[in-house]
Structure formats: C-alpha cells, structure tokens
Write a structure and sequence with these properties.
The chain is an all-alpha fold and 263 residues long. The protein has a domain of 166 residues. It is 64% helix and 2% strand. Strands 1-2 form a two-stranded antiparallel ribbon. Helix 3 packs antiparallel against helix 4. The protein is globular, with a radius of gyration of 22 Å. The N and C termini lie far apart (91 Å).
Length: 263
C-alpha cells in the first residue's frame, strides 16, 4: 500500500523563513492602516500603528538572524515594507494633519520626503562593508527610514501629549519634514544597535530598562515617543564624533618608506 503523503505548505527546511516574513507583512499592513485612520482623523491611532510597525521592523531582522531564516526574498520584502510603512504612511499622516493646508507646496514636501526615503533604502541595499571595515556596521549612513518616519511625526506626537509649552508646532512641520528627509539621504553617521554586544552581567539591567520603556509606552505613549525622538536627534552629533574617532583609529598607517622620493 502506498503511504499517505502529508500535505505541507512549505518544506521543513523553509519553515524558519516564514516567521520573519510574517512579521514584515504585518508591518506593511499596519503602515497602510495608519493612512486609513489618518484620513478618518484618528491621528492618535495612526501614530500608534506606525510605532507598532517600527517595533515589528526591529524584530523581524533580528529574529531572522537568530533562527537563521535570512533570505534575499526577505531582504527585498523588508525594503518594500519600509518604504510603505515609513516612506509613505508617516508623511501621508502629516499631509492629512497639516501639510494639505499648504496646497501644492505641502504635496511637494510629501513627495520630496518619499523620494528621499526610497533613495535611502536603495543605497542601504547596495552598501556592503568589507572585512577591514566591520566597525562601520555600528553606524548607518544617514537616518534609517523607521527612525525618520517617527521623527517627522514629532509635531503630531507633541500635540497628542498633555504637555503645554505654548509652542506652535504646526508651523515647524514643513521644515522638520524637509530636514529629516535630507538627513536620510545624507552620509552623516548615525547610531546602529545591530552589532552591540551585551555582557551577561548587564543583562538584568537591560531587561529592567526594557520593562521601564514598555511601561512608559503603555501609560505615557506619546510623551515617551517624544522624549526618545529628542534623545535620538541629540545622539547624532555624538555618533559623528565617535565615527570620526573610529575612522582615525582604523586608518592604515603609512610609513616613510611608502612615500616616493620626489627630489
């Protein structure tokens, strides 16, 4: 008698690729849904969905590397998802919130940001560091798209908080959007946490910090987002200084014998 063949959606060797890609697809669904809620005028939920999309974006790559589920398909899918969730959705939220009041100029700013985001993602996909430049993996060239998507939402986030500093943040929206767009396509080194190693002694403190952040986001979502956005912006000059120091440290030393005698 013939043995019954079990139906398999994917082979056992391919199952580890499913989870990271499912998380990635969840991120694009959150990004598109945020546009829908911004059209409805529910900006608090729209911003929250972008936050969840950023969390999923941070998790999918790490989970893929952890379970050895990385693939070229997943890499391309991640880039497309980033463009939708952080290159289109956040700036559309801004457009329906404030930029549409600027008419054609507001739409032009929306397009400029999206173009800068897609250029940044294309450059990121082509960037490869050789073995002698592994230290550069601790830095991004320009602001990554998830960070950019959250940073341009700072004016909305401020209005959603209970803070009251009598700031007319809506007036800063066009300038902030262009500024963040330029930072994304710039070659300014920004911090990357992908290659940071943590000793076993500090693990308990890391877990405590994660717990505090989670509680803060749960009860003071927009205040916490605003604080972390400001901290990230302030960390960029520090990152530039660290990058330059690392660059000097790893520069190849040229001896006197390597110089040609031109006399």
């Amino acid at each position: 008698m013939e043995q019954n063949k079990k139906f398999k959606l994917v082979t056992s060797k391919k199952t580890r690729y499913l989870l990271p890609n499912i998380l990635t697809l969840g991120g694009v669904c959150l990004g598109i849904s945020s546009i829908k809620f911004s059209i409805d005028g529910n900006f608090s939920l729209a911003v929250t969905l972008i936050l969840f999309a950023a969390i999923l974006d941070a998790l999918d790559g790490r989970i893929a590397r952890l379970i050895k589920g990385t693939s070229e398909f997943g890499k391309e899918l991640d880039s497309l998802t980033d463009f939708v969730s952080f290159g289109i959705a956040p700036v559309f939220i801004l457009y329906f919130w404030e930029l549409n009041s600027y008419g054609k100029l507001g739409w032009a700013i929306t397009l400029i940001y999206s173009v800068c985001c897609v250029l940044r993602l294309a450059r990121f996909n082509l960037t490869k560091n050789d073995n002698q430049q592994e230290w550069k993996n601790n830095f991004f060239e320009g602001i990554p798209s998830p960070a950019g998507g959250l940073l341009i939402l700072m004016p909305i986030i401020y209005e959603l908080t209970d803070l009251n500093f009598n700031l007319k943040v809506r007036d800063f929206t066009p300038f902030l959007t262009i500024f963040i767009a330029l930072l994304m396509v710039s070659k300014i080194p920004t911090p990357s946490l992908k290659k940071i190693t943590i000793s076993s002694k500090t693990t308990i403190f890391l877990l405590l910090a994660v717990g505090v952040i989670f509680i803060s986001l749960l009860f003071y979502t927009f205040e916490t987002l605003l604080i972390f956005s400001l901290i990230y912006l302030l960390s960029i000059p520090i990152s530039i200084l660290i990058f330059k120091n690392q660059q000097k440290k790893h520069m190849p030393k040229i001896s006197d014998e390597d110089h040609e005698d031109i006399l």
